[in-house]
Amino acid sequence: MSHPFNASNILCPGPETRRGFMRMGLAGFASLSLPGVLRLRAESPQPSSERTAVIMVWKPGGCSHIDTYDPKPDAPSEYRGPFSTIPTKVPGLQFTELLPMQAQIADKFTVLRSMRQTAGGHPAGSMQMLSGDPDTRDKPKPKYPDWMSIANYLRSQEGARSNPLPRYVGVNPPTTYNGPAYLGEAYSPFAVTGDPSQPNFEVPNIGLSDANEVKHLGRRSSLRQNLDTLERAFDRAGELEALDEFETQAMSLLTNPKTKDAFDLSKEDDRTRDRYGRNTWGQQLLMARRLVEAGVEVITSSLRGPLCGRVSNWDDHAVNHHVFDALRFRSKAYDQAVSALIEDIYERGLDKRVLVVVTGEFGRTPKVNYDASTGAGNASAPAGTKQPGRDHWPRGFSNIWAGGGIETGRYIGATDKLGEDSIERVCSAGDFLATIYHHLGIDSSKVFIEDFNGRPTPIVDHGKPIPELMG
After folding, report:
1. How far apart are CA 105 and CA 101, in angstroms?
2. In angstroms, rounded to a whole number, what is the distance separating the alpha carbons of residues 252 and 258?
3. Which residues of 312-333 are buried (b: 16+ CB within 10 A; e: fewer)?
4. 8 pLDDT exceeds 50?
C-alpha cells in the first residue's frame, strides 16, 4: 500500500479570487486541509444510512471502577468507598448509587469489568487504548495512529462519497495522547469545540449571516456564514462549477443544508434536549446522535471541563480532587447524558448499525489514599487540606458497550474481591480495539499500513475481537 498522500503539500496561497479563497480559507477550516481531506475520501459502496458507525465517549483521566460499575460492598472501607450499591435491571448486576439512570437501562448495554492494560501514565495508557501501542513509557505524541484515524483512512480508500459530512467528527474530542501519526493530519477529525448547551453556540466556520460578506471571503480568516445564502451566491456566479471536484465537495461541506442541519441542536425538541441534560456533556452526546443519523461514521466526544471538577478531568488524585466529592459532582450529568444516548440509539432503530463505547484509559486505585489538596475549587478543598483520592490503575477497570447488534443486559469478566486485578475473561487494549474494528467491518489481524519508513505496520499487533461484544 502506498504511503498516504499529505494534503498540506498541495495547498498554497493564491490571488484573492473566489478560487483563491477556497484554497486559503479552507486550508484553515477547523485546522484541516479540507480539499485535501476530500481528495483522500472515498465513496462507500453502501448508502451512509447502512454503514456501521461508532460513537466513543471518552473519560480522560480514568474513572474509578469501584465507585461506579464494579462496586465492592464487602471490601474494607478503605477500598469500597462511601457509596451504597443499587440493583440494576439486570439480575445480579449492581452499580453504585451514582448511576441510577444507567441502572434502569442496564438491559440495553453490556458492562465489561475485566479490562486491563499495562501503562500507568495518561499518555501511554491512552495510547494503548486508542492506538494499541504496547509501550508503557509516556511519550509526548503518539507513534501509531489511533483507531478513529485508521477507520477514517481505510474507509476513505473505497471511493468518492456523496454525503457532504466528514466521516470522522470529534465533538470536543480527545486532544492529547492521540492522533493520526504517520497517516497525516488529513485523517484527523472535523473538530467541534465549545459548549453546545449555550444559546449562542455555533459550529465555527459553517455560516455567514450577511450575503455581502460573500464578496469579501478571501480577506476573512473566519468563515461564519449563512449556508444557504453562501451557496446561492456561488451558484449564481457559476463558480462552483469552476472548482475542481474535491474543492466542490469541500464547498458543499460549508454550504449544504444537510451539513448545517446535522450540527443544529435547535432542530431537536425541548423534551429531547432536556432528556440529555442542558449542559455541555448532554448536548455533546445529543449532537453525536444527530451526526451519526446524518451519516458520520466515527464520532468521539470527551467528557472533560468544568463538569468534572476543579482540574477539568477524571484524574481524581487527592492533590486534584476529593475523589468522592468529584464523583458526586459529575455523576448526575454523566449518568443522564450516557443513559439518554443509549436509550435514543435503541428508540431510533440505530442499535444494529451504531456501536456506543464509554471508557477511559484506566481505572483508579482500589485502595483510597490521602494527600493535601493543591487548590480550592469544585470538588476540592482549600490548598493544604488533607483529602481522599484514588490514583491511576490499569490492572483492572470497566467500560460499557451498547448497540452494535451485540447481546446486552449482561456483564463480562470480573476483578478480584478488592477490585485490584482482572481475574476472569481478562481483556486487553488490543482486544478492545479489535472489537471496535470488527464492528466497522475491519479485520484487524490482516490490515497493515505503511509507516513513515514505508514499513507495513499492523493496525493492532495483539488482541482479538471480544466474542461477547461481536454483533
Report:
1. 7
2. 9
3. bbbbbbbbbbbbbbbbbbbbbb
4. no
Distance CA 459, CA 446 (A): 9
pLDDT computed for residue 261 by the predictor: 87
**What angle (nearest 5°) sits at the alpha carbon of residue 124, between those of residues 389 and 380?**
20
Choose the weakest-confidence range: 41-45, 192-196, 293-297, 447-451. 41-45
Asked if residue 338 lies in contact with residue 358, where contact means CB atoms within 8 angstroms, the answer is yes
Contact status, residue 189 vs residue 209, Cβ threshold 8 Å: no
Q: Where are the alpha helices (DSSP H) in 7-81?
A: 18-27, 34-39, 77-80
Confidence of residue 216 (pLDDT cuts 50, 70, 90): very low
For cell 472533560, what's the residue?
A: 304
* Single pTM value for the model: 0.84
- The DSSP code sequence of 404-451 is TT---SEEE-EE-TTS-SEEES-B-HHHHHHHHHHHTT--TTT-EEE-
Residue 123, helix vs strand vs coil: helix
Question: Which residues 6+ apart lie within 8 Å of 237 measured at CB?
Answer: 18
CA atoms within 13 A on the CB side of 174: 31
Cβ–Cβ < 8 Å for 421, 118:
no
User: Please, what are the domains in the chain?
Assistant: 1-39+206-262 (no CATH), 53-203+266-469 (3.40.720)
Residues contacting residue 412 through CB under 8 Å, at least 6 positions apart: 110, 111, 112, 113, 114, 425, 427, 466, 468, 469
Q: How many other β-carbons are positioned within 10 Å of the β-carbon of residue 10? A: 14
Supply the pLDDT for residue 83. 98
Take residue 420 and report the three cell numbers written for it: 485490584
Give yes or no for residue 268 having a pLDDT over 80. yes
Residue 312 pairs in a beta bridge with none
Q: What is the largest CA-CA distance in the chain?
A: 74
pLDDT value at position 43? 35
Residue 199 corresponds to which cell in the numbers above? 444559546
Q: Is the alpha carbon torsion for 288, 293, 294, 296 positive or negative?
A: positive
d(CA 456, CA 343): 41
Say if residues 293 and 350 touch (Cβ distance below 8 Å): yes
Query: In whole angstroms, what is the distance from residue 420 CA to residue 397 CA?
Result: 9
Q: Is the pLDDT of residue 25 over 70?
A: no
Which pLDDT does position 250 carry in this prediction?
53
C-alpha cell at 350: 440505530
pLDDT tens-digit profile of 298-335?
Answer: 999 999 999 999 999 999 999 999 999 999 999 999 99
DSSP H helices in 132-208: 147-155
